[in-house]
TrEMBL record:
SUPFAM superfamilies: Zn-binding ribosomal proteins
InterPro entries documented for this protein: Ribosomal_bL33 (IPR001705), Ribosomal_bL33_sf (IPR038584), Ribosomal_zn-bd (IPR011332)
Pfam family, one: Ribosomal_L33
Family: Belongs to the bacterial ribosomal protein bL33 family.
GO CC entries: ribosome
Originating gene: rpmG
Name of this protein: Large ribosomal subunit protein bL33
Alphabetical UniProt keywords: Ribonucleoprotein, Ribosomal protein
Superkingdom of the source species: Bacteria
Length: 49
């Protein structure tokens, strides 16, 4: 089973991406370098609660 999580921009806090992760990794938060349409540049996106 996998769990859906939201990714939020680290600078503007907008939530523009979703991702999935395995249920066994509940303690670790995902981070990804993605394009933010609000900031209009590539920024770090982190998993939100």
């Amino acid at each position: 089973m996998r769990q859906k999580v939201m990714l939020a921009c680290a600078q503007c806090r907008s939530r523009s991406y979703t991702a999935t992760k395995p249920l066994g990794c509940l303690g670790e938060r995902l981070t990804a370098n993605k394009f933010c349409p609000i900031c209009r540049k590539h920024t770090v996106h982190r998993e939100t609660k």
